[in-house]
Specification:
The complex is a heterodimer of chains A (540) and B (234). Chain A is an all-alpha fold. Chain A is built from 22 helices and no strands. Chain A starts with a helix and ends with a helix. Chain B has 234 residues and is an alpha/beta fold. Chain B is built from 9 helices and 10 strands. In chain B, the strands form 2 sheets. Chain B has a 6-stranded mixed sheet with strand order 6-7-8-3-9-10, with helices on both faces. The chains are: A mainly alpha (540), B alpha/beta (234). At the A-B interface, helix 12 and helix 17 of A face helix 2, helix 3 and helix 4 of B.
Chain lengths: 540, 234
């Protein structure tokens, strides 16, 4: 037991120290932005929860808001868990060290799954706690609600992880049979994530429809997803027995996955390595000169396609963007129906609205795709100790920085242009609108990715054990996501406000693109001066 | 030529390098020795422009690494102590990438990569991913990448660690040939026998301070370098 505690302690301090900032400025100022952004996200979720409560409380179904939060968070945890388990469980740099220690292999696996659990716990808490606070403020604040909610925050990540780990194992096992195993892994994970999102989307639609039949909701939810139902049961009618069953089910499931996965885990892990070494001496190569920027970009692309977690993280919002455009174009009437199923009331003709505002909607989607999938916010950290290679080369730091931005933009452009074309074909865009959209297609990613690289230069993590630690758990990627959300929210708010003031759509779009173009120029100047300084200060 | 002038490097209040001054001449193999944590890697990283330093200056063939880092780096090659290369690249792609950074012409890089790959017996593996390599093979890739652009100044941190005996021998031969062409070689090592036989001059560092510098003959006299080193370490 003592050894297990030591092992957990070592892993938690080494791998899970989310606020470990490799910066000279370790003072309070470095933590202000992340804390502020967490508060902004928390406040946004709290506000959204209150909006839901406004609709649900008159129906005496306030607990449906909690259910929806639990379900959405669980789906996100499941998706995250599947593709993070690939890195956290099957691509660990400390394999040799762990396996050389006099500890059981099942203990090593337990520690790794536990590490995944702790991260998901923090992630869940960020979404659940604000919703719970909103419920407590509007509906009830009792001792039993507090106890139930604390238990829920602690236990709710367990089931998604229990499902995610075997799925991650299957994906790793399947992909290790392919020569291009990283690409195979990325494709499988992306398909799974899209499927999970599609399912959850439909589930939410069903939930909204049955909101008017509040009394039967609880039974329904319990049948669909036990943890959500158990939590809502405890909130509405607390029983100690329910709490105990809830805890035992989760803990039992956690131990079961450790035992079941334990029998195949190390076999899958070693097979992946055998594939790598058995290919030795068979590779072909070509020596060809490139320009400095082209060579740097080629290197970045190579890194990108060889990291499934990196690809999925970056590619997901891009794939969603294309899917969104296709859905809008192919069946805007159905999309309008879906929007209505989310609780939007009234007699608005959504189909007509989508057609009228298509350029503006596309602009919003472009902005969302660019801001929500920052690629560069991990690119410095992913260099790891090989960052010293870059620093020793006769290349200006600004060239390295901008080559990373350029690579990210090049990765994004095919997806964004594909979405644009679908929308151009389906809806009637004027020539000016097409031109503005094309400019935005380039400007938005440049802004998002320059912000990303600056954030990563500010919060580098050069000692990560695997890519997931950088892409999903580092301060840099979190700040980039939160800042992207904040920027998106502000932009959307201003665009809607301007529309309400009857400012012509083309003027709003031009102004928005103009502001972002100015931001791009300013950010590049910042990257040239401050970015170079930050680059030189990073020690790997 | 490398000129290290009164270099001081601090980590917070602690001085990792204290007023270090010495030169490494053209056509010279210079050994830099010291115990673990003495400051060898810190100085090497300062020379190669990886780390800043607080006081003093370092000149590479007359150019300051502080004010003209790109010009200095163009003349240098660096082999790190632990070859943390780009694991997802093929060995040939990595070496080619380094050549791109130094803007090495196509014919020169083809000739050099072939030459050094033959010397280090890694020709068959140039098309393999670096992630499949052992430590020694990675070290060979790092050495070929460093040598492929014909550097005037070669700086290496523990270059012989992980290499097989044949590769160590070949590397020493390459170093001898380079200095005959008037190039400068500066490296850190714990293998004192190699340093004693190979180097013309030596510097010994202890807790960030240079405690001995000079020609190998002057520093060790009639004793072995190992004996001198152990005496100075007391």
């Amino acid at each position: 037991m003592g050894r297990l505690v030591s092992l957990l302690k070592a892993c938690m301090t080494e791998d899970m120290n989310l606020f470990q900032i490799r910066s000279k400025k370790r003072g309070a100022s470095s933590k202000v932005l992340p804390v502020f952004l967490v508060l902004v996200i928390g406040f946004s979720i709290w506000s959204y929860a209150n909006m839901l409560l406004d609709t649900l409380l008159p129906l005496n179904a306030g607990f449906v808001m909690l259910t929806m939060c639990v379900l959405v968070t669980s789906v996100l945890t499941l998706i995250e868990g599947v593709y993070k388990s690939g890195s956290l469980l099957f691509n660990c740099k400390d394999d040799d060290l762990m396996l050389s220690l006099p500890i059981k292999r099942s203990t090593v696996l337990f520690v790794r799954i536990f590490k995944l659990y702790v991260f998901e716990l923090l992630y869940n808490a960020l979404f659940l706690v604000p919703a719970m606070i909103a419920y407590a403020m509007r509906v009830e604040l009792s001792a039993t609600f507090v106890v139930s909610s604390i238990a829920a925050v602690i236990l709710l990540p367990v089931i998604p992880i229990v499902i995610a780990c075997p799925l991650g194992a299957i994906i790793s096992s399947l992909s290790s049979r392919f020569r291009a195993k990283n690409i195979a892994q990325t494709v499988i994970i992306t398909l799974f994530a899209l499927g999970a999102l599609y399912a959850s989307w439909n589930l939410e639609g069903i939930l909204s429809k049955i909101a008017s039949h509040a009394t039967s909701i609880n039974d329904f939810i319990t049948k669909v997803y036990y943890p959500a139902g158990a939590y809502v049961s405890m909130v509405t009618d607390f029983k100690v027995v329910d709490l105990l069953i809830f805890a035992l089910v989760n803990m039992g499931a956690f131990l079961l996955v450790c035992l079941v996965l334990g029998s195949v885990y190390f076999r899958i892990n070693s097979r992946a390595k055998i594939v790598r070494t058995s290919a030795r001496g068979k590779g072909k190569y070509k020596i060809k000169a490139h320009s400095v920027t082209a060579a740097l970009m080629k290197k970045e692309l190579k890194k990108f396609v060889n990291s499934p977690v990196f690809m999925v993280n970056a590619g997901f919002s891009l794939v969603l963007f294309v899917v969104g455009c296709v859905v809008l174009a192919v069946n805007s009437t159905d999309t309008a129906t879906v929007l209505q199923s989310y609780g939007v009331e009234g007699t608005i003709d959504f189909g007509q609205m989508i057609r009228t505002y298509a350029p503006m909607i596309l602009l919003g989607l472009l902005l969302m795709a660019a801001l929500m999938g920052s690629i560069t916010s991990s690119m410095i950290s992913l260099e790891g100790r090989s960052f010293n290679i870059l620093k020793s080369l006769p290349v200006k730091p600004y060239t390295v920085i901008m080559s990373k931005v350029l690579t990210a933009v090049v990765i994004m452009l095919p997806f964004l242009i594909a979405g644009d074309i679908v929308m151009f074909v389906k809806f009637d865009f004027s020539l000016l609108e097409i031109l503005m959209i094309l400019v935005a297609t380039v400007v938005f990613p440049v802004v998002a990715e320059t912000i990303g690289i600056i954030i990563n230069l500010k919060y580098p993590k050069m000692d990560a054990k695997n890519d997931a630690e950088v892409v999903k758990q580092s301060m840099s990627s979190m700040v980039a996501v939160f800042l992207g959300m904040a920027l998106l929210a502000v932009s959307a708010f201003l665009m809607i406000k301007a529309l309400n003031m009857n400012i012509p759509m083309d003027v709003i779009m031009a102004a928005m693109i103009g502001v972002y173009a100015l931001m791009a120029a300013g950010l590049m100047v910042y990257a040239r001066h401050k970015g170079t300084k930050m680059f030189n200060e990073i020690t790997a | 030529m490398i000129e290290i002038k009164n270099v001081t490097k601090k980590y917070g209040d602690k001085k990792a390098l204290k007023d270090i001054t010495f030169n490494v001449e053209d056509g010279e193999i210079f050994a830099f020795i010291g115990h673990n944590g003495a400051g060898k890697t810190t100085l090497i990283k300062a020379i190669t422009g990886i780390h800043d330093f607080d006081e003093g200056d370092i000149l590479i063939n007359g150019k300051s690494i502080k004010t003209a880092p790109i010009a200095c780096k163009k003349e240098m090659a660096y082999v790190p102590d632990n070859p943390e290369l780009y694991e997802n690249m093929k060995a040939a792609d990595f070496i080619n990438f380094i050549c791109d950074m130094y803007e090495v012409p196509q014919d020169v890089r083809e000739k050099n990569i072939k030459k050094y790959a033959q010397i280090f017996e890694i020709e068959q593996n140039l098309g393999d991913e670096i992630s499949s390599f052992s430590h020694g093979m990675k070290q060979k890739v790092a050495l070929i990448a460093a040598l492929a652009h014909d550097p005037k100044v070669l700086i290496m941190d523990e270059p012989f660690v992980g290499l097989d005996p044949k590769a160590v021998f070949d590397m020493k031969e390459v170093m001898k040939k380079m200095v005959k062409e008037g190039k400068t070689i500066f490296f850190s090592t714990h293998i004192l026998d190699v340093a004693e036989k190979l180097c013309t001059r030596v510097a010994i560092i202890k807790k960030g301070e240079l405690i001995k510098v000079g020609s190998m003959r002057a520093v060790k006299g009639d004793k072995s370098l190992e004996k001198i080193f152990l005496e100075l370490e007391k």
